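Q: I have 292 residues here and want to know how they pack in 3D. Can you give me a structure?
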Amino acid sequence: MHYRGAFTALVTPFKNNQLDEEAYRQLIEWQLEQGIDGVVPCGTTGESATLTHEEHKRAISICVDQVKGRVPVIAGAGSNCTSEAVDLTKHAKDAGADAALLITPYYNKPTDAGLVAHFKTIAREVPIPFFIYNVPGRTSLNVRPATVARIFREVPEAIGIKEATGNLKQVSEVIEECGPDFIVLSGDDFTVLPLLSVGGHGVISVTSNIIPNMMHALCRAYKDNKQDEARKLHHRMAPLCRAMFLETNPIPVKTSLALMKKIELELRLPLVPMLEENEASLKIILANNKLI
């Protein structure tokens, strides 16, 4: 599998507080039709924090079945409890996911040694390629470049990182420390083009839920050395990227998909619908981009 380009951090559609399998399959199929390079079920955007383990596993199984090997599936499988992460990762592998996305343990705030031990244990129990997910804004823990490099050296299954600090200095240091074979994906839609310019490989994107074709096109344009085209797409998408964070992710992106008639608008507490003024702003931006 090639892990380059635009990967969508899929939302999880709900209906009557249950996983909406039909809408989920249709959303995945639309993503593939629009040229997306890969999909990531059960990440932050997929509301993994409020999925039961049964729902989490079901969502991954549905995704793998719908994709049928056409693009890579990177399954969200992390936890702040190492044994839970092992269980979720084992299911992801058994379901046929190509790789796992493993968030750094949140709340516990382990030391560097604890981080290495966490990922080593998962890899020993479940040998599947995985991406470290570094998102300090959610976890209160930042994996330093030297620690990323240590994990890469000591854990063969660690093939890359979803880097969601928005810190290009840190991203550049990760690439410097780990070399070109380590796959660095942006976890921040605002930094896709800058990250590519320092040697990154692509993005795990929120915004590509609604514009998979454009995010794929940006990554492809850069790969094909069409710098002007990539810059134009970067600036064209900027208002949409900002709109997806008018409120906490995934509230705006699920609202957008509902307005686009792709899913029902249903969130799980403690997430609630957008404030009216923010939704009004969102509608204007979507309309300006002919999405509604």
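Q: Anything worth noting?
A: The chain has one domain: 5-226. The longest strand covers residues 158-163.
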